[in-house]
Design goal:
Blueprint (H helix, E strand, L loop, with lengths): L28 H4 L9 E2 L13 H6 L3 E2 L2 E2 L21 H4 L7 E2 L14 H7 L8
Antiparallel strand pairs: 1-4, 2-3
Length: 134
């Protein structure tokens, strides 16, 4: 997945499947994972992060200085790149703030899901070229 909540280059399911096909507690990756644009279960890290001018993650979010894919429409390029705005912990907003695509995942840990199929055709349809059926 991508920070924008889209399917990433590694999404290989054919026939096409959605994030919700793999949902846990009713939430797909695009709703629950920080890295996939969700943010449910995301915590700014380090907690209480501020840039060198005392602006926190909420300020970056409310001013639209960033979004899950990086710079937001409110960021003025004349201010320079985020890496020049290193704050607490030596990290920038993109690394520290959930609203900017960073932060740390918290909450439910992903559980592996075993999928059993009882015929070779279904196995090959779901995982083409990557399966071995016995």
């Amino acid at each position: 997945c991508t920070y924008a909540g889209d399917y990433g280059a590694g999404w290989v399911y054919m026939p096409p499947r959605s994030f919700l096909d793999f949902a846990r507690d009713g939430k797909g990756a695009h709703q629950a994972c920080c890295a996939c644009g969700g943010g449910v279960g995301c915590s700014d890290a380090p907690e209480g992060w501020q840039d060198p001018w005392g602006r926190d993650c909420k300020t970056y979010q409310s001013n639209a200085w960033c979004n899950r894919t990086g710079y937001g429409p409110g960021w003025n390029p004349a201010w320079g790149p985020f890496p020049l705005a290193l704050g607490e912990g030596g990290v920038d907003a993109i690394t520290a703030c959930c609203a900017c695509g960073g932060g740390s995942a918290v909450g439910l840990q992903p559980q592996p899901k075993l999928i059993f199929v009882n015929d070779a055709k279904t196995c090959e349809d779901v995982w083409p070229g990557r399966t071995f059926y016995r």
